[in-house]
Amino acid sequence: MRKAIWLLPLLASACAVQSGAQDKPLLLAPMPPEATAHPDKWPAPAWPVPRDAATEARIAALIARMTIEEKVGQIVQADIGSATPADAKTYHLGSILNGGSSGPGGDDLAAPEKWLALADAFYAASVDDSDGGVAIPIIWGTDAVHGHSNIVGATLFPHNVGLGAARDPDLIERIAKATALEIRTTGMEWTFAPTVTVPQDYRWGRAYEGYSSDPRLVSEYVGRMVRGLQGPADGKDLLKGPYVIASTKHFLADGGTLEGRDQGDARISEEQLRDIHGAPYVPALGEGVATIMVSFSGWNGVKNTGNKSLLTDLLKDHMGFDGFLVSDWNAHGQVAGCTNASCPQTINAGLDMVMAPDSWKAMWTSLVAQAKEGTVPMARIDDAVARILRVKMRLGLFEAGKPSSRAYAGQWDLLGAPDHRAIAREAVRRSLVLLKDQGGVLPIKPGSHVLVAGDAADDIGRQSGGWTLTWQGTDVSNANFPGATSIWKGIEQAVAAAGGSAELAPDGAYRRRPDAAIVVFGETPYAEFQGDLKTLQLRPELRAPFATMQKLKAAGIPVIALMISGRPLFMNPELNAADAFVAAWLPGSEGAGVADVLIAGKDGKPRFDFTGKLPTAWPATARADGPALFPFGYGLTLAGDRPWTALAEEPGVEQSDGGTNWFARGVPAASWSLRVMDGAGDTTRISSVPAKALSGRVTVTATDHGVQEGARQFAISGGHAAVEVSTHAPVELTRETNGDLLLVATMRVDQPPAGDAMLVFNRTAIPFAALASAPPGAWRSYGVPLKCFAAKGADMTKVEIPFRLTTEGAARFSLADVRLASVADVMIPCP
Ligand code: BGC
Ligand code: BGC
Question: What's the pLDDT at 131?
Answer without folding.
Answer: 87
